[in-house]
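User: Predict the full complex structure for these chains.
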Amino acid sequence: AQKITQTQPGMFVQEKEAVTLDCTYDTSDPSYGLFWYKQPSSGEMIFLIYQGSYDQQNATEGRYSLNFQKARKSANLVISASQLGDSAMYFCAMRSLSGGSNYKLTFGKGTLLTVNP
Amino acid sequence: DTGVSQDPRHKITKRGQNVTFRCDPISEHNRLYWYRQTLGQGPEFLTYFQNEAQLEKSRLLSDRFSAERPKGSFSTLEIQRTEQGDSAMYLCASSLVGAGAYYGYTFGSGTRLTVV
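Assistant: Here is the predicted structure of the two-chain assembly.
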C-alpha cells in the first residue's frame, strides 16, 4: 500500500519569498512517480511537477522545483518568488509505475498556502 | 482540446434522491477516472475505465454508486438514495495509456455535491 504524508496543514509566505511544502511517502514499489498538484478555490486539480523514482536529478518547472531525497522518502515542493496567485491547496501524490495498480494516484491531505502581500 | 469537463459544477439534493454527474474527458484519452474529495482531505480513488470497460472499483464505491462510460467517450456517475455522507467534491480525470508517467492525469473542475 502507498501512503503520502503532508504534515503542514497551513503555510504562510510573503510575496516574492520562497516556500517549501513538505511531503513524505511510503511504498514498497520499486518504481514510482511523485506528483504535486495545485487546487485553487475553483476546485480544479492543476498539475505542477513530476519526479520519477529513477530520475537522477531533481525536477524543475519554472518557479517550481522538487527536492527529492529517495533515501529519506521525501519529495518536498519548493516555490520560488511566491506570487499572490500561488495561494491555494497543494497536494502531493504518488503512483506506482510497476505492478497492477499503476493507474491509481494516492494523495496526501494537502497544505493550504497563503501568500501575503 | 478543451480539457476535462464536468457537469454540473454544483448540485444540492435532498437525502434519498438520486443524482447523476457527467464527465467529458480529453477526446484522445482512453482512460477515465473518478475520485471523491471530502472536506479537508485529498482526493480518493473511486473507479476507472479503459475505453468502455470499468476495470477497477474502490471499496469506497458502495452499491448505491454506479459509473458508466458508454462507447468509451463521456462517463456518468450516479448515486442512488443519496445520504449526507455522500456530500463531497467528485473529480473526474483522464489520461492516455502509453504516455509517460510524467503527464499524469488531467483533472476536471469537479462537481460539488451537497446532500441536505
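The two ends of chain A are 41 Å apart (CA to CA).
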